[in-house]
Amino acid sequence: MGVFTQTDKLTTLKEAAAMVNDGDMVAIGGGLCLREPIGLIMEMIRQGKRDLHLVGTAHGFDVDLCCGGGIAGAVEETHVSFEQDFGLALNYRRACESGKVKVRESCCNTLINQLRAGSFGIPFIPLRSIKGSDELFMHPEYKVIDDPFTGKKIVLAPALTPEVAIIHVDVADPRGNLKVLPPYVADVLFLRAANKVIVTAEKVVSEEEMKKIGPNVPYYETTAVVELPYGAHPTSCYPHYAYDREYISNYMKASREGPEAFKEKYLDKYVYGVKSHEEYVKLIGEERFARLASWKESKERWMELFTYE
């Protein structure tokens, strides 16, 4: 974990994406369809990043988009899919089966403990949970030794220290203090294990206002802050908006037709077809965002948002 003491870390989305280098190990915050930094990922695709080593626990839209957009080189995740709603992540599957993306499948317990080692500044972590599993064959960097205290076999896994963590949060201030609302997923571990932390926020407030709100991540753990309303769309960012099931349904239809159709029907419209996140928000439309925010009105209204086929 770095220590960042600048008093003003506000930057633009383009400048923030430029801080990610080709080949970097990148921890992506959020999970599955929750609070993923999609606006930043889209800008990284527009900038033509390559060979990123993605790290995370259970993810979906973000990793699939990185694979479909050609910026992923390796994926070290515990799970990638659209779960019971839309099933397999097809861009991810194609990239893995073709060999374009290296599969470094892990499990939550292993990966979280590797991140803990990274955040503590220790070089490796002893594990008992993966003894006898095929994870040992998928990760030749793991070592098996005799425990010096018990004499029993134990696995050593290296610490994970991503070059950069990209996180979308609810509120930030210019100095980098953050208010992240639950569920936190693995975001806190990501930002404490990574060398750099780039944050996009639904809203940026003054330091005085942040003191009243009460931050739960201190300023010195963040490297850069971008104000990016709707920066997690089409994943959810509760309580601000639910996830956009209609949008994701159309995304899945395009991905089912193969890479060329996915580029023509999705990437050329929503990623390459806009020059900025502001243009993307206009393309989606305020009316649609208002509908996604209406989940708070009632349980029935919330359920209506998920009836689109």
Describe the fold and architecture.
The chain has helices spanning 13-18, 38-46, 61-68, 83-86, 90-98, 108-120, 135-138, 187-193, 207-213, 245-256, 259-271, 277-284, 286-293, 299-304, and strands at residues 25-28, 52-55, 58-59, 72-76, 79-82, 87-88, 102-103, 124-127, 143-146, 153-158, 164-172, 178-179, 196-204, 224-227. By secondary structure, it is of the alpha/beta class. Strands 1, 2, 4, 7, 11, 12, 13 and 14 form an eight-stranded mixed beta sheet that branches. Strands 3-5-6 form a three-stranded mixed beta sheet. The chain has a three-stranded antiparallel beta sheet with strand order 8-10-9. The chain is globular, with a radius of gyration of 20 Å. The termini are far apart. The model has no long low-confidence stretch (mean pLDDT 95).
The helicity comes to: 25-40%
How many β-strand stretches? Answer: 14
- Distance linking N and C termini: 43 Å
CA radius of gyration is 20 Å
Class by SSE composition: alpha/beta
What overall form do the CA principal axes indicate? globular
H/I helix tally: 14
List the secondary-structure elements in sequence, H or E. Answer: HEHEEHEEHEHEHEHEEEEHEHEHHHHH
Q: What characterizes the major β-sheet?
A: 8 strands, mixed
Q: What's the overall average pLDDT, rounded?
A: 95
SSE topology:
Layout: H1 13-18, E1 25-28, H2 38-46, E2 52-55, E3 58-59, H3 61-68, E4 72-76, E5 79-82, H4 83-86, E6 87-88, H5 90-98, E7 102-103, H6 108-120, E8 124-127, H7 135-138, E9 143-146, E10 153-158, E11 164-172, E12 178-179, H8 187-193, E13 196-204, H9 207-213, E14 224-227, H10 245-256, H11 259-271, H12 277-284, H13 286-293, H14 299-304
Parallel strand pairs: 1-2, 1-11, 2-4, 3-5, 4-7, 11-13, 13-14
Antiparallel strand pairs: 5-6, 8-10, 9-10, 11-12
